[in-house]
Design a protein that fits this description.
mainly beta, 23-stranded mixed beta sheet
Length: 290
């Protein structure tokens, strides 16, 4: 009985000691940077999720860090402004020590509000990244986290090592490289370079897309579905290494070859145009009109 009472007292003391951890949540960190012209923003948030969105015609960049149930003292935060360029970094301190954990811990979340026209270089380590409502030169990278990119325009370059990619209602040019995770892309593009190593790929070239630069889609392991406008003009080449393909586009055929389970087809869409190649090494390919 004595040991049971001691255990109960110890548990009560531990529970009581844990209560102030939630009550003493750190206040959000916030800062505003005035900018003029077309600003640029570079940030790296390590294992912290991040979100970038437009504040319309504002002439400033606003950054807010919500610590959630973590503490500012756990992190190294550095920031500076040079002219119209803002740089921000947030990383957990290495070897910070033992963390007592009760239930689920929520990592910090960083929000960036920017003018609509912006050059952006964004990187997260193990955290999701969402960017929407901005236009410019956009370079986005995650090491292990999902990426959500709706309603952007300009030159979009994406790299994801392990996490899904969702691009919706984009316009301009696109370069997307992913290693492991599903990829869903739709937009009105003038050029695309899409490569995935392991994961399904769905690519929609929405109505109004007209390819003006050589474009390609490449997948190592996973099914590929490409949908294009009936009006798209291109010199189309499709190759499958180990898989079948379906193509219902009105092609003027230049060549067809089937070998060892693979297939090659070449043809012109609407009198032809810039090269558009679709290659898969192990997976089925479907190419169809919208």
């Amino acid at each position: 009985m004595a040991s049971l009472r001691a255990s109960a007292v110890a548990l009560a003391v531990l529970s009581f000691a844990a209560l102030p951890l939630t009550a003493r949540a750190d206040a959000d960190w916030q800062k505003t940077y005035p900018v003029s012209g077309k600003p640029s923003l570079t940030f790296s948030t390590g294992d912290t999720s991040a979100e970038v969105h437009s504040c319309g015609d504002c002439r400033e960049i606003r950054i807010r860090v919500e610590w959630n149930d973590r503490h500012a003292s756990d992190y190294n935060l550095s920031e500076f402004q040079s002219g119209t360029h803002v740089n921000f970094e947030l990383h957990e301190k290495p070897g910070f020590g033992f963390h007592m954990q009760f239930g689920n811990r929520h990592s910090p979340h960083v929000t960036f509000e920017t003018p609509a026209a912006l050059d952006l270089e964004a990187r997260t380590g193990d955290g999701s990244l969402k960017v929407y409502g901005v236009q410019g030169d956009l370079q986005l990278r995650t090491s292990d986290g999902s990426m959500d990119v709706p309603d952007v325009s300009g030159a979009l370059r994406i790299q994801a090592s392990d996490g899904s990619i969702h691009v919706h209602n984009a316009s301009g040019t696109l370069e997307s490289h992913s290693s492991d995770g599903s990829v869903h892309i739709d937009g009105r593009f003038t050029g695309v370079q899409v490569r995935t190593s392991d994961g399904s790929l769905d690519l929609n070239l929405n109505e109004g897309s007209q390819l003006t630069t050589a474009s390609s889609v490449e997948a190592s392991d996973g099914r590929v579905v490409v949908r294009v406008p009936k009006s798209l003009a291109a010199d189309l080449e499709i190759h499958t290494g180990d898989g079948h393909f379906d193509c219902d586009l009105p092609l003027v055929m230049n060549g067809y070859n089937s070998h060892g389970g693979g297939h090659d087809i070449r043809g012109r869409l609407n009198a032809g145009g810039v090269p558009f190649t679709i290659h898969t090494h192990d997976g089925n390919v479907t190419v169809t009109s919208l």
